[in-house]
């Protein structure tokens, strides 16, 4: 049964959606022109003060039209983030002529539907060229694909807000000549996925990657008598459940990934922390140049001299040069019992004076130091309004 009035309203909404898409495309084109100006005048990508003023004005304008501040803020956070990332990509392409490929061959963990697959899709959606996905069964295989020129890039998960650092990936970085050229943070939303119409109380066997089980340990504790089976990737877990077609088995993965295997979610938000994100790095055989207008990160690996206070001395070099450290991770050195390699992420560009100075000083006081990569930071912090009172003026 159709209701003419309802059909007319839906038709108007559909037309408005099309107009919105056209306007968003026009806005993005204009921000690309802005990027061209910034390239020629060496202007930083972000102007936080202008973004704050823009957001306050938009919130006030939205309130006049009956839209609440939260709704307007959420919409324009996404729009501003898209603008910043697109401009950063344009500047990076100009700084690395010849880097754009007609075909991007990318190795990642698992297959279609894995979290690494979704992260790969997200990162390369902003890059020119077609995408050829190369699913792998281990981190070592992923790295080898790029080292042997069977892939151009690799996407590797490096840390998660719930389960912490992924040590296997750090160990791979210790033994490769590949360079980190990019990063991205991707939301991880775990769901309980099934192939048939069933219920939670019927589930007897659960498939997932070990990292996923760690991130959902509280949920697993509530399940009781369920057999947990680890598997090499989230996509493999979903494929297994899809093939079994039984009402007593399930996988943990994303709803989007599950859809690719004909699975549906019977429970969502399974992670211990509801704000669950994974950070991924992108590696390649060649390093990239990061324009100074683009916020950059640099990853270093070093071993310190075996004496009291040597690590503190190294970290003081960063402090004295006003370099902000965002990550410090230690991993054992194979063949050297009780000795550690330290991985350090800092905010800064190796082409900029302060970080250059810090690296030179570190070389003098460490046994080993290597830059694993300098790359654009894609952690875009949301624009915040100057004061809540501004919204009610």
From TrEMBL:
Principal place of residence: cytoplasm
Every ACT domain range: 299-376
Pathway: Metabolic intermediate biosynthesis; prephenate biosynthesis; prephenate from chorismate: step 1/1; Amino-acid biosynthesis; L-phenylalanine biosynthesis; phenylpyruvate from prephenate: step 1/1
A cellular component annotation (GO) from this entry: cytoplasm
Binding site for substrate: 10, 27, 38, 47, 51, 83, 87
EC numbers for this chain: 4.2.1.51, 5.4.99.5
GO biological process: chorismate metabolic process; L-phenylalanine biosynthetic process
Cell compartment(s), UniProt: Cytoplasm
PROSITE patterns: ACT (PS51671), CHORISMATE_MUT_2 (PS51168), PREPHENATE_DEHYDR_2 (PS00858), PREPHENATE_DEHYDR_3 (PS51171)
Catalysed conversion reaction: prephenate + H(+) = 3-phenylpyruvate + CO2 + H2O; chorismate = prephenate
Residues forming coiled coils: 6-33
Positions of the Prephenate dehydratase domain: 105-285
Residue ranges of every copy of the Chorismate mutase domain listed in the record: 1-91
Annotated Pfam families: CM_2, PDT
Job description of the protein: Catalyzes the Claisen rearrangement of chorismate to prephenate and the decarboxylation/dehydration of prephenate to phenylpyruvate.
Record-given protein name: Bifunctional chorismate mutase/prephenate dehydratase
């Amino acid at each position: 049964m159709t209701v003419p009035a309802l059909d007319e309203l839906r038709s108007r909404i559909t037309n408005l959606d099309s107009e919105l898409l056209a306007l968003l495309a026009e806005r993005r084109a204009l921000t690309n022109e802005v990027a061209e100006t910034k390239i020629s005048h060496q202007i930083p990508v972000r102007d936080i003060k202008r973004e704050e003023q823009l957001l306050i004005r938009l919130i006030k304008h939205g309130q006049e039209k009956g839209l609440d501040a939260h709704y307007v803020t959420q919409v324009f956070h996404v729009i501003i983030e898209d603008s910043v990332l697109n401009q950063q990509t344009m500047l990076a392409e100009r700084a690395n002529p010849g880097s754009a490929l007609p075909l991007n061959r990318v190795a990642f963990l698992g297959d279609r539907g894995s979290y690494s697959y979704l992260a790969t899709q997200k990162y390369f959606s902003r890059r020119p060229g077609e995408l050829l996905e190369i699913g792998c069964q281990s981190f070592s295989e992923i790295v080898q694909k790029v080292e042997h020129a069977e892939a151009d890039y690799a996407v590797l998960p490096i840390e998660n807000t719930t389960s912490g650092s992924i040590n296997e990936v750090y160990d791979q970085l210790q033994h490769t000549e590949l360079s980190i050229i990019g990063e991205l943070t991707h939301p991880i939303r775990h769901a309980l996925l099934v192939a048939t119409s069933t219920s939670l109380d019927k589930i007897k066997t659960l498939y997932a990657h070990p990292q996923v089980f760690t991130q959902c340990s509280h949920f697993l504790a509530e399940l009781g008598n369920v057999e947990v089976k680890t598997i090499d990737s989230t996509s493999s877990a979903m494929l297994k459940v899809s093939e079994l077609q039984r009402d007593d088995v399930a996988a943990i993965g994303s709803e989007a990934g599950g859809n690719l295997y004909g699975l549906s979610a019977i429970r969502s938000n399974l992670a211990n922390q509801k704000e669950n994100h994974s950070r991924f790095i992108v590696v390649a055989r060649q390093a990239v140049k990061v324009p100074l207008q683009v916020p950059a990160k640099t990853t270093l690996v070093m071993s310190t001299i075996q004496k009291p206070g040597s690590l503190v001395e190294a970290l003081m070099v960063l402090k004295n040069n006003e370099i902000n450290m965002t990550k410090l991770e230690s991993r054992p050195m194979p063949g050297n019992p009780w000795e550690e390699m330290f991985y350090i992420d800092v905010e800064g560009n190796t082409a900029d004076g302060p970080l250059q100075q810090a690296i030179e000083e570190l070389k003098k006081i460490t046994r080993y130091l290597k830059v694993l990569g300098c790359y654009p930071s894609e952690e875009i912090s949301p624009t915040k309004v100057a004061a809540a009172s501004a919204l009610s003026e």
